[in-house]
Amino acid sequence: MSSHHAHGGAASTGMTGAWEQLTEGVWKQNPTFVMMLGMCPTLAVTVSGINALSMGVATALVLIASCGLVSLLRNVVPKEVRIATYIVIIATFVTVIDYTIQMVSLKLYEALGAFIQLIVVNCIILGRAEAHASKNPPIASMLNAAGMGAGFTIGLLSLGVVREILGAGTLFGFSLFGPHFQPWVVMVLPPGGFFVLGSWLLFFSWWEKRKRRLAAAAATPATAASGG
Predict the structure, then answer these.
(1) According to the model, what pLDDT value does residue 5 have?
(2) What does DSSP assign to residue 178?
(3) What whole-number distance in Å separates Cα of residue 54 and Cα of residue 43?
(4) Angle 148-154-160 (CA atoms, 0-180°, nearest 5)?
(5) How far apart (Å, rounded) are the C-alpha atoms in residues 162 and 160?
(6) CA–CA separation, 11 vs 37, rounded Å?
């Protein structure tokens, strides 16, 4: 009986740990809105929802694959050459993604431009490889990488969707407001990226402060009641 409970507790702990690994990058350590990493593609390719989604998925796939392989080789690669090895691993997967996008859609490939190749030097990927994958087993590393990739994709989409709707009156290429809509052209220009990013950061800052204020307000009556 006790053995059954022990196994159940271990499974529950394992599931909780896996869920935390997966969700860490989505909210608590979101690469775009919390860690402020990968800003070049975030600002450059998010002129439309499809561009943002494609770049996010491409980065996430490279992140998951490279972190998995780095984790598998973590006890084999000498410490002196680990960064160079990580870059070679990342570059290999980026090349695969690069040719895949080129094969699937040449128009999308041209829209994303050099930023596909620049995934190699995206600090999110190298940072996860060095800080997490090199110290953890493959499943945990890939779950953490998947969460970070999802967080980055959400960040890109948050910018891309807003910029496309306001800058072109469309969403994923479909017209929303008809032919009489006057697009806000600045949104598809570089300043639009900074404007939308700043607006999202302001919103999330307000949201966090509101949560803390509500939590403090909820705790105060409970403290007063227990004190009484």
Answers:
(1) 45
(2) -
(3) 14
(4) 135
(5) 6
(6) 34
Q: Is residue 149 within 8 Å of residue 106, measured between CB atoms?
A: no
How far apart are the C-alpha atoms of 34 and 28, rounded to whole Å? 7
> In whole angstroms, what is the distance from residue 167 CA to residue 33 CA?
22
Q: What percent of the chain has pLDDT over 90?
A: 36
Place of tokens 């469309």: 170
Among candidates 145, 161, 129, which has minimal Cα distance to 59?
145
Bridge pairing between strands 174-175 and 170-171: antiparallel
Which tens digit of pLDDT belongs to each residue from 37-48?
888 888 888 899
Going by C-alpha positions, the residue among 192, 205, 60 that lies closest to residue 183 is 192
pLDDT of residue 11: 45
Distance CA 211, CA 134 (A): 35
Calpha distance 75→127 (Å, rounded): 18
Phi, psi of 175, deg, nearest 5: -70, 135
- The answer to whether the beta carbons of residues 59 and 152 sit under 8 Å apart is yes
